[in-house]
Amino acid sequence: MKMKHFSLIAGAAFAALVFAGCPDRRENTLVVWVFTDEIGQKIEMHGIAETLGMGIDVSLTPSDQFQGRLDPALRAGRRVAPDVFTLESAFVRRYIESGLLLDLTELYEEVSGRVLPYPVEIATYGGRVYGMSWQATPGAMFFRRSLALEYLGTDDPAEVQEFFADWELFMETALSMNEASGGRVAVISAVGDLNHPFRSARSQPWIVDGQLYIDPAMIDYMRMARFLRYNSLDGRVDQWSTGWFDGMRGTLTDGAGNPVPVFAYFLPTWGIHYTLRNNAPLTHGDWGMIPGPVTWFWGGTWLAAYAETRHPEAAKEFIRQVATNEANIYRWARETGDFLNNVYVMNRILADDSPAPSDSPVAFLGGQNHFEIFMAMAPYVDGSKIQGTDQAIDSLFLEAVTQYVNGEAAMEQALAMFREQVRAQLGF
Fold this sequence. Notes:
The chain is of the alpha/beta class. The protein has 2 domains: 4-136 and 299-348, D-Maltodextrin-Binding Protein, domain 2, CATH 3.40.190.10; 139-294 and 385-426, D-Maltodextrin-Binding Protein, domain 2 (3-Layer(aba) Sandwich), CATH 3.40.190. The protein is 46% helix and 13% strand. It has a 5-stranded mixed sheet, sandwiched between helices. The protein is globular and about 70 Å long.
C-alpha cells in the first residue's frame, strides 16, 4: 500500500517531545487520514496546527486503497483509527450510515443558510450531520468553441446551450454535427461521460424499501449510450483512457488514423482544473462551458471524524478550519479556483472584477467565468438519491451498460445479469 506521511507540529518543544518517543503520541496529536493532498496544503496555508495548539499527523493513501485501510482501522478502535478522515462521494454515504462517525451537526448549524443544500443533504443521516465539505462539485458541459463555430454557427455559450438544452436536442445536434463533418465529429469521447448526468436525473435511488430499483433515467442512459455508439457519435474510448485525454488535446484518431474531433466533455468543477486544463494545452482558450441538458454533480470531498476519537473538540475545530472558516476557504478558492460550498464566499469572489491571469480557468475558457455557471446550477443539485451501497451497484450497472453498448447483450439480458449480480453480492 502506497502511503505518504508527514507531521505538522505546533511548537518546537512539543516537536522535541514527540520525536523523542512519547509513550502514546496520539494523546497529543490529531491523526488525519486523507486520499487527497489538498488537506495538507490547507493545513499549511491556514496555520491549523498553530490554531489547534497540537500536532497534526497526516497520512495520504491513494483513493482506490483508502477504504481498504480505513475499514479495519475503524473496526479496531481508537488506538488505531484516525481522528479525522476524508470521504468522497463514491463511498461517503457508506460511512455516514455506519454509526461510527462523530456528530458534526453543531458545525453545520454555524453556517446553516450560507452553504449549499446538497453536500449537507448527503452527509445527513437520522436528522444529524456527520460530514462537512468546503467544496461543491456541480457539473457542466465543456465544448470546443472552434467546432461550435464551424458546425453550429456560433460559439456564444448562451446560443450553444440552446442546441443542448435537453437530451432530445442533444441527440439531434450530435447527429447534425456528425453529418455536416462527414462523419468525423464525435459529440463526446466516451459514453461513460453521461453516467453522472443521468444518475442525477433519477427520481428514486438504487434501493427502495429494501429492493433494487432501476430508475427509468438509467434505462434512458443505456439507450442514449447505445444510440451514440450505433450512430458513431462518440469517440469509442473509455473514460480516463489515453484516447479520452487525446480528445481534449485535439489529437484523437480512429483505428485508421483519421482525426476524430471531440466536441464536448461532461465534467464537474474539479474537472476543469485537474483534468481538462492539465491535458489540453494545445486547445487552451478554445473551450467554453454551458449547463447542458440537466443539473448534476460528480465527486466531492467530505471531512468526518471517528465517533470515539480522543480529541473530539480538536477534531471539530480542525474540520471547522478546513471546511467552514470563511476566511480560510475564501483564500483557498482565490488561490486554487476551487468551487466552494458557501454561497456568501462565492458571491464575494464573483464580485471581484480584477483581470484574470493568463493561466486561470477564465483564460482557458476564452474569457468565460466558470464560477458564474456553477453558481447558477449548484443550488438545484439533488443529493437525496445517494446511498451507502451506490459504489458497488454503480460498478455493476456500468458493466451492464458496457455489454449493451458493445452489442454483447440485449438490454434485458444485460439488466437481468445486473439484477442477479446485485442479489448475489449485496442481497438486494
